[in-house]
Amino acid sequence: MQWITLFQKELLENWRNYKWIWVPLAIVLIASMDPITSYYLPQIMEAVGGMPEGASFELPDFQPSDVVMMSISQISSLGVLIIVLMSMGTIAGERKSGVSELILVKPVSYNNYITAKWAGLLVLVWASLFLGMLSSWYYVNILFGVLSFISILKVVFFYGLWLSLVATVSIFYNTLFKTPGLVAFLSIATIMLSSLITKIFGQRFEWSPNNISIYIKEMLVTGSVSADLLATALITIGIIAVLLIGSIFTYKTKELAN
Amino acid sequence: MTLLTVENLSKSYDGKPAVKQVSFQFQPQKCVALIGPNGAGKTTILRTLSGLLKPTSGIVTFNNMNANDDLRKHIGYLPQYPVFYPWMTGSEFLVYVGKLAHLSKEEAMARSEELLSLVGLTEAKNRRIGKYSGGMKQRLGIAQAIIHRPRLLMLDEPVSSLDPIGRREVLTLMEELKKEMTILFSTHILSDADEVSDELLLLHQGKIVEKGSMDELRKKYQTAKIELSFQDESATYQSKINSLPSVVKCHMERHTLHVAANDIAAARKEILMAASADNWPLTSFTINRTSLEDMFMKVVGN
Amino acid sequence: MQELFNEINWAVIAPFLVIQAILLLVALIDLFRIDKTNGPKWMWIFIIVIVNIIGPILYFIFGRRQ
Fold first, then answer.
1. Smallest CA–CA separation between A210 and chain C, in Å?
2. Which residue among C11, C19, C66 sits closest to A29, beta carbon to beta carbon?
3. Confidence class for position C36, pLDDT limits 50, 70, 90
């Protein structure tokens, strides 16, 4: 019951501060940008000029799966940035402003408080990702060729796990620090560091969550879910669980006022 | 019966002690004032009792409470500067915290209405809290603190930031509330404490230096003094007054003679008799009690 | 340039423009209703209107006071 109350408050807050409008729209724009610009690339090149006389720009032969992956790669950079920035104050900001002093002297369980915040954030992230990929799918179908709806759903499912991890990292830092800017910085730094480590020690971290888009692309090409993808997904879920438990633990041991 | 027992409570920040070995007990339905200058540790004590801070050492126990019961169910707390969600309305906020305190939706709504009218916010209940004035926020703060009918209500400097009208409103409200619950509030304004509290805890540098009811403390520390002024040079009479048997001390301050005595009634009688016998040109004769501030200085001085 | 304009398939571009317009509108409405922003309001009007797509998003992330 208390969890539902906290969760509903998150939804209402994100509605009142327009996150439910601008975050999905921003993700939709980010996801549609590449399909459109890739399609119009020849015209754009021509219009911009700089092509030698008589030479024409040939559109590389983009497969639908290539274009979907372009959308994913845009979400991986700009989308991740948006998720981190819009979640940087979700707990930290409440502590900084002092409103948590009123909330947490009520018999509120820290488990409920943290997980409701987390779930409220995740619902927004998943809905935005779904809408973003839906629009990407729409453009792929009218501009590049047919791609089944089921494969887009699979992409959303597996890639959503990665974005959930990003959101959970942000929640984790939110429980550690009360400066939203620091939370955003550390979240981005952590994501970049893990990507760097994955790249350098590629062999040893085959199933690193950072690799999930590689396996998603494989899935789009082959049409089947590989064991690597499943393993990576499970590991991602595992890390999310550990971070979430870590967040609750940190918050429990923390002093909530100065 | 004791409601709450605090034993040897200490709290340090980074090794610096803010509260040292504080012990006290509360009886139900009492209003207790925690008095002390800024930095004496008042807020730290309230925050520790509310669970926002963890005590460095010491035990806090509620009467009739199971070991695994959540202490927060029984306390309501209003910080000195309460901060709300500015995007919520007053009514939404009360229902929200009511539900967090395990009231059902219906209970929370009914109780919110009741409290909004108690604190005089019925008209503003559907306005966003971001648009509330300071006094309105303070009253909403009291409402949110008692929504779950706590046994102990803690208020941190509830009136010090208010204008005279707001202060009067809040003090009247506290007068009402203490019929139903124990109130512990901090203040550095002694007259506020005098007005509503049954008991005082005087705090200085993290220690309780004195406690008791207002009357007890008055008896213990308050001495009366007589102030005299004369038409001609007051100094002329100083030695005469000093020679009266019940006068302890007589000194002059800006044309006025200040007379201290242990038995003020006797001193009054002697001075007035001398005055009428010698026909002193008295222009004023006043008996002043030492102010609360003087009293506090005296306690702290010890 | 004219050619490019004609060649554009409006069914492709229209949703894009509509979304941009919604973002712009919601950001401006919020800006007028909100009490205070981080930094002066006129600066945010400028950013929201002039900076394509990113303007409204910048406003929502950094302009609104938490």
1. 26
2. C19
3. confident
Q: Are residues B54 and B158 in the same domain?
A: yes
Please tell me whether residues B92 and B229 are part of one structural domain: no
Q: What CATH number is attached to the domain comprising B101?
A: 3.40.50.300
Q: Is B109 in the A-facing interface, judged by CB distances under 8 Å? A: no
The radius of gyration computed from the CA coordinates of chain C, to the nearest angstrom, equals 15
Which residue on chain B is closest to A14 by alpha carbon?
Answer: B87
CB pairs under 8 A between A and C: 54
Q: Give CA C60 to chain center in angstroms.
A: 10
Mark whether B180 and B227 lie in a shared domain: no
Q: Mean pLDDT score of chain B, rounded to an integer?
A: 86
Q: Which residues of C3-27 are buried (b: 16+ CB within 10 A; e: fewer)?
A: eeeeeeeeebeebbeebbeebbebb
Asked if residue B90 and residue B63 are part of one domain, the reply reads yes
Query: Which whole-number Å values give the CA distances from B133 to A99, B86, B279, in the listed order?
Result: 17, 12, 60
Tens digits of per-residue pLDDT, B217-276? 877 776 777 888 888 777 778 888 888 888 888 888 887 888 888 778 888 888 888 888
For Cα atoms A47, C24, B131, give the angle at the middle one, nearest 5 degrees. 165
Contacting chains of B (3 CB pairs or more, <8 Å) are A
Give the tens place of pLDDT for each residue, A52-85: 666 666 667 788 899 999 999 999 999 999 999 9
Same domain, B144 and B207: yes
Q: Which residues of chain C lie closer than 8 angstroms to A18, CB-CB?
A: 26, 30, 60
What distance in Å separates the CA atoms of residue B70 and residue B6, rounded to the nearest whole number?
17
**Of B219, B245, B270, which one is at a domain's C-terminal end?**
B219
Are the beta carbons of C8 and A40 separated by less than 8 Å?
A: yes
Residues B188 and B260 in one domain: no
Q: Which of residues 2-61 of C touch A (CB under 8 A)?
A: 3-4, 7-8, 11-13, 15-16, 19-20, 22-23, 26-27, 30, 53, 56-57, 60-61
Domain limit, last residue, from B219, B248, B276 = B219
**What domain count does chain B have?**
2
Question: Are residues A22 and C7, on separate chains, in Cβ contact within 8 Å?
Answer: no
The H-assigned helical ranges of chain B are 42-50, 90-100, 105-118, 134-145, 164-177, 190-196, 214-221, 235-242, 264-278, 292-301
* CA dist., res. B35 & res. B54, Å (int): 22
Q: Among partner residues A36, A85, A93, which is closest to C16 by beta-carbon distance?
A: A36
Would you call C22 and A97 a contact, using CB atoms and an 8 Å cutoff? no
Closest alpha carbon within chain B to A99: B83
The whole domain housing C46 covers 2-63
Within this chain, do residues B91 and B176 fall inside the same structural domain, yes or no? yes
Is the Cβ pair B52, A2 closer than 8 Å? no
A21 and C7: CB-CB below 8 Å?
no
Q: Report pTM.
A: 0.86
A79: left (phi over 0), alpha (psi -120 to 50) or beta: alpha
Q: What are A31-54's pLDDT values in tens digits?
A: 998 998 888 877 777 777 666 666
Q: B 113-142 residues with CB below 8 A of A? A: 141
Task: Check if the beta carbon of residue A132 is closer than 8 Å to that of residue A27.
Answer: yes
Q: Are B55 and B134 within one domain?
A: yes
pLDDT of residue C66 exceeding 60, the answer is no
C-alpha distance from B261 to closest chain A C-alpha (Å) = 48
- Give the ipTM of the model, two decimals please: 0.89
The residue range of the domain holding B177 is 4-219
Q: How many domains does chain C have?
A: 1
